[in-house]
Design goal:
208 residues, mainly beta
Length: 208
């Protein structure tokens, strides 16, 4: 079958390469496992063509799982538009009631009446981190295109949170000058690393 080549780099927030990180390179039917070298770089050939969900796995459990998207093209080398930034794991907050506040008070999530399904039974803890758009892992597309001005990006853990009804989301901007502004809201499918627009959000009178 036709094959191609993938490469990229995984680094810390400070720009240091992260060595010996296992990477899952997954098609809909199978996953291959690769590992970064001492500089945090991965470079592998002879990979069947097609879109790939890429995902880190840190055996030391120091860093949060990172998800991104690459496409293997026939007889081509597919790189990344920016390095993959690995963030250290955060202390999680129990999402025991309807509403939880995360990301240093910037993000408020409200569960629907039907509740939230967590990936691990009896563990209903979550964490979120606000990051710069250039620190967000590359996906099938960047929703902001070539202009990240005014973009707000958050990384939520754990993966595979599920709700049968919409989750209420409030971003605490506190900027009344933005009242009435409308933001597009995008999310990432953690089974494919593909983005999709899920709605819009309007800034209220108090600037949130």
């Amino acid at each position: 079958p036709p094959e191609g080549h993938l490469e990229g780099r995984i680094e810390t927030v400070d720009g240091e390469g992260v060595a010996n990180v296992d990477i899952l390179c997954c098609s809909p039917s199978t996953c291959l496992i690769y590992t970064t070298d001492e500089t945090g770089t991965y470079s592998y050939s002879d990979i069947p063509i097609g879109p790939r969900k890429m995902k880190t796995f840190d055996h030391d459990e120091r860093y949060r799982t990172t998800l991104w998207h690459q496409v293997v093209r026939e007889e081509e080398t597919t790189g990344l538009p920016r390095p993959i930034v690995m963030f250290e794991k955060q202390e999680r907050t129990e999402w025991g009631g309807a509403t939880v506040v995360l990301a240093n008070g910037r993000l408020e999530l409200t569960a629907p009446d039907s509740g939230i399904k967590f990936p691990i039974e009896d563990d209903n803890t979550v964490a979120a981190r606000e990051v710069m758009p250039e620190q967000f892992p590359p996906l099938d597309v960047d929703p902001w295109g070539d202009d990240a001005t005014g973009v707000l990006t958050f990384l939520l853990e754990p993966d595979h949170l599920y709700a049968e009804a919409p989750i209420g989301v409030v971003v605490k901007l506190g900027d009344v000058d933005l009242a009435g502004s409308v933001y597009d809201v995008w999310t990432v499918d953690d089974s494919t690393a593909v983005t999709s627009k899920v709605g819009t959000a309007r800034v209220n009178a108090v600037g949130d």
